[in-house]
Amino acid sequence: MSAYWPWWAGAIGLALITINHTLITDRSLGVSAAWDRVLHWRRERQLERMDEEFTDDQALAEALAAATAEHFGTGTGASTVPQDPYETPQPLEADAEPAASERPAATSLRPAPLVTQAALLMSIFLGGFIAAVASGRFHLRYDMGPGFRDLVTADSTTMIAVLFVGGVLVGFGTRLAGGCSSGHGLSGCGRLRPVSIVATAVFFGTAVAVSFLLWKVI
């Protein structure tokens, strides 16, 4: 284990990555969402093209108003707000709208651009590859190591089936929890979101329990 980074260096690195990703993209870091969007890149690109037409909140509001007027018909221009007969009618004023700085930008509610998600996945792969080569520990292998062979199975066909089922369960759990360990554990817990804290506790609690069963019981 001496060839690995110390835990505090890894913690600092993950914190810097999460903070920089949020500052640059104005979105939370999440690997599972990036993977899902890259897999369905044609659909996501079509949605991005549609969103590009309404990148401005004011333009979006005007388009919605025009579509509403076209569907329901324009009024006579008279106010439909009842007037107090004992007061002098006042000209209608536009509804009070919060300042632009007070309204959440529409872009901040949208997912990160598809190219950003693809760059994130490629960076994870390239970063791991560079780290393995630089440490002199990179080599191709087609099994999960001696620990997996001793505790689970040494048969290659069974190993592939087990890994496939495990991957499906991980995907199901990610969807059920609304995010993966990076989205909840790094971004969500960093923002003190209760749902992320609970999800992360379940993630790691289950991992600890399974590891204990494999090493101590089985």
Could you outline the blueprint of secondary structure elements for this entry?
Layout: H1 7-25, H2 31-39, H3 41-52, H4 57-72, H5 106-109, H6 114-135, H7 146-151, H8 156-177, H9 181-190, H10 194-217
Helix pairs in contact: 2-6, 9-10
Tell me what you see in this structure:
Belongs to the TsuA/YedE (TC 9.B.102) family. Keywords: Cell inner membrane, Cell membrane, Membrane, Transmembrane, Transmembrane helix, Transport. It is a multi-pass membrane protein. InterPro entries: Sulf_transp_TsuA/YedE (IPR007272). The protein is mainly alpha-helical and 218 residues long. It has a domain at 31-71 and 112-140. It has ten helices and no strands. The protein has helices at 7-25, 31-39, 41-52, 57-72, 106-109, 114-135, 146-151, 156-177, 181-190, 194-217. 11% of the residues are buried. Residues 76-81 and 91-108 have low confidence and may be disordered.
What are the main properties of this structure?
218 residues, mainly alpha, 10 helices, membrane, Sulf_transp_TsuA/YedE, cell inner membrane, transport
